[in-house]
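Box 3.1. Reading complex inputs
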Amino acid sequence: MTVPRLSRLIIAAAGPPVILAIIEMVMLVLSLTGDHPRWRVQSVNVSEAAAIRDFAEVARLIERGENPDDPRLVRQGLIDGRAHRLTPLEAATIAKRDEIVAYLFDHGARPTPGEWLRIRCHAEASGSDDVLEILDTVRPVAVAETCDGVLPLL
Amino acid sequence: MPQPFLSVIVPAYNEALRIEPCVSQLTRELNRLGHPWELLVLDDGSSDATVAIARAAAAADDRIQVLELVHAGKGAAIRRGLQAARGRWIFMADADLSMPPGEIGRFLAAVSEDEALDIVIGSREAEGALRVGEPWVRHAIGRAFNYLAQALAVPGIEDTQCGFKLLSARAATFIAPQLTLDGFAFDVELLFVARRAGFVVRELGIRWYYRGDSRVRFGRGATAFWDILRVRWNDRRGQYGSGGTVAAGTSSDTAGRSPGGMRRWAYVLALTSALSFAYDLAHIPVQVSDSLGVILNVQPIPSAAEAFRRTLSLDAGYFRPLRVAQIKAVLDGSRGEYTLAFRGVHVVLLFAAIFLFVHVLRVTTTVDFAAAAFALATFTGLHTFLGTLREAYPINHFLEMVVFTLAALALTQGRANWARDAGAALLFIAAALVLESGLLVWVVVAAAWVAGMRGVSGRGVLVTTCLLIGYLAVRFVVLDKGLPGLDARSTGFLLDVLEPAELEQQFGANRVPFYAYNIASSVSSVLFSEPRAGVWAAVRDYLRGDVSPRVVVSIVASLFTTMLIAVAAIRRWRQRDALHDADRFFVVFAAVLAANAALSYAYTKDEILSVAGAFYALAAYAAVRSLLVWGGARRHGMLVWLLTAVLFVASAGWMIRVAGHHAALRGTAFVTRNDWASLPSNFDDAGAGREVVDRLRSDALNRRVGAPPFAPRWQQRWLYD
């Protein structure tokens, strides 16, 4: 019974890589329809992109003309177990991405004094020193000094 | 008389001067081998004292017999001998013993190692072959004959005419009655019939000494050409039966399958692997770190040649003039399509590496294919491969090194000629001028030569060695480039990455322990996937209480594969008289690993070890192939079950690691794209390079990539590297 034994060994050695090759082949065929499972791209808005730290997508959308100040719905699961309505600046602050915060200010983000304060209070509470530093460079003239009574972002 | 294990048949026509030494040398060797044997002298109607001398030998030893035949030709004598022989194996030998009898043991070892084989033929063209003293005219005629034989009857067999062949009794019984040719082309007919019946034929490179008084004359040679046509004609007339296969289902894995079929499947596997990684690469923007600065530096240089020249005077500690020249050449040739050009080069290198890898495996049987599938997964699943794919400067020079070294190995396979020698020299020059790792081309060529892969001749090795000496002289004496020091860059040490200043502080007084650590950790990294870039990441994760499944999978796959390599290498070393071509990969791998680790003395990175990683996978191929043959032939099962389990765990581990590399490349694409998003403020002063930066950034941002948070958590734990 040499042949079955050899076959077992051959399957043990080659089975997993061949299975992977078949899966890859199927994915390549699917890619012809523009839908490679591994490279599937989920559409996100600017706020969602900022929340998941996808700086490149933030930049792409902003440079395509999206308004950096508009609040947008961030779907459930990207920040926590709930959906939130946030501006890109708010989402980037929650994600502690100072480079996205800086980029948004450079590309026209202009929060109201109330929004600015909410963002700053969140950054302060979460210990995002880099974000605080950027926020303080664009501090509005008339804005409260404390976070007392400020609604939290989340 | 009991059935002998081996029958040796020796056709003889007017061989009075040679038959006595022939018989006595064969007798001595057969006694040494220790199997029961018989020796049949097939006298083809000699008119000299051949018969009398042979009879005297037969009288002294009853295992020797003489068959007196009417003169009809060598083919007729062999046909008669195949029918008269009683052994389980039948060995055909020319009376001139142009092949030393000591080689017979290698034929027997080949069939004992691979039970799929029914026929092993001595070859003066196969790897490891050596021709001595043959006039070039005779060699040229022989090659012309072989081209015709391959074209018309036996494609893929490089030497049909060598007079030393081993056949199983089963093959001989089936083939002999179908043979019709009496002359020298009977070999072609024999192999044609064997192939047609599904018998597996393997060429074995032998040492062959030209005997001046050869029986082959021009007129007979011309007849042999004509006889090849007769083989085809006989086949058309149905002379060789209806085409059914006697071997199918009766031997092991390869019976009834054409060697080309398995080779094709191996290339299908390679194509799938290359396409899937190429698809990943196409989504990754050109790197910002390590790439953009180089691109902007070479942009104002007038030409690639000027870039080459200028680099000679830069970079103390390094000597890589062709690296920058290549980047300049691709940049200039891109016509503004920078991402396409650089990624295109990357994809070409990827295809070249994967196809060369499969090419050097020389897959012919199902066992070969299985081992190749395992090895390809090892090659593309090893962290060194991911390192080479992930990092580009912006041309991936470490992947280039893999291509150069595999190409050098391919040159060492087959028969030596001046073109292979020249190819090896050119590969060395090109590789050495790109990166220091290019010196591994010399290591491959020299180690392969030592291991018996002599497609690059001794002269070729000598020339390459002279080039190596020249390189060292130019680098250290003429240009005074020196070597990288502790301040070269940060590198891993034990559980942390140390910056140059920390390295200087710890090892400034005595660098030897640090260099030794780098070399040892490089070896360990290839063999066990730990440490990674000098850092014992698994130990660190363990101490933190967070060892992810992917770390365990990586180490287990590597550990098991290294064990397989060790077991197979030891086993093959004990049988080193009968090495399969693939077994020589063990030797080359050992040399490449040692040299590659030594080149990493100053600092370690995964991609620096990419060449050692590729040759580790070649050693895995040799090991798995050897152990499959061994396991398939064993009667009792406990060890075979153990081997099956180890193979499966290792193979599944490599599969997960390959899948992980695809996932990791997606992560790389995400990170690199984000790097470009943050770029403009850093490159305000790029000047003439502004257009390049804008174009590369625009390409990057428009290559949309799914963000990691959308990937399931289990992928992070099992796949991401």
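In summary: Chain B is about 60% helix and 5% strand.
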